[in-house]
Amino acid sequence: EPEVTQTPSHQVTQMGQEVILRCVPISNHLYFYWYRQILGQKVEFLVSFYNNEISEKSEIFDDQFSVERPDGSNFTLKIRSTKLEDSAMYFCASRAEGTGRRHFGDGTRLSIL
Amino acid sequence: QQQVKQSPQSLIVQKGGISIINCAYENTAFDYFPWYQQFPGKGPALLIAIRPDVSEKKEGRFTISFNKSAKQFSLHIMDSQPGDSATYFCAASISDYKLSFGAGTTVTVRA
Fold first, then answer.
1. Phi-psi map region of B9: left, alpha, beta (phi>0 left; psi -120 to 50 alpha)
2. Which of B37, B87, B98, B101 to mutate to test the interface with A (most CBs of A within 10 A)?
């Protein structure tokens, strides 16, 4: 079965630095998402992206966050100035037209020091 | 506002037993109710999903029961196996919009 792939698997960054998390969604999917999961807690929605624009975002997704689909295959999440509380697992997901099923990647563990 | 409430937080079941996880939601506009299974170090994987026009859906050993009037839905894992040991999340969404996840239930199946 096709998979969503995320890189890197683990990212360690100093507080205040910029970080870019990368995702390759499933090739024929049109809807893209970022979620995060703080250790031991539930999965939280960050943002959804469709037709080259943000279609929905949560209150967590403030001005420090941005998303981009720079080419036909990658989908990125940028955090401009990282904070300690940004430490979490970040999951990318994608979805095909006509189905509710989101396919999740295995995540990037972001550690802010 | 917690849109989806999940219980219990954890449960232990003997091999061959039944695991039952419950979720309650608040927003009557929700029309898609999936359950996700997550193993350590992995992303959530869709297990089974239901829409509110049916009261039950079964796939293998996994069954969703849905009670629209009570705004509740549950996951039953029949004949639980050690390989079912994982964290299970219920979720809900309005059509294509964001998935709201429950807090998760850690299931441990003892051999």
1. alpha
2. B98
Tell me what pLDDT residue B2 has.
65
CA separation for the pair A100, B92 (Å, rounded): 10
A103 interfaces chain B, CB cutoff of 8 Å: yes
Q: Are B44 and B37 in contact (CB under 8 A)?
A: yes
SS3 state of residue A66: strand
A31 and B96: CB-CB below 8 Å? yes
CB contact under 8 A, B98 and A104: no
pLDDT at A83: 96
DSSP-based helix, strand, coil % in chain A, nearest 5 = 5, 50, 45
Q: By CA distance, what is A58's nearest residue in B? A: B98
How far apart are alpha carbons B50 and B58 in whole angstroms? 10
pLDDT tens by residue, A42-72? 899 999 999 999 999 999 999 999 999 988 7
Interface contact flag, B101 A43, Cβ < 8 Å: yes
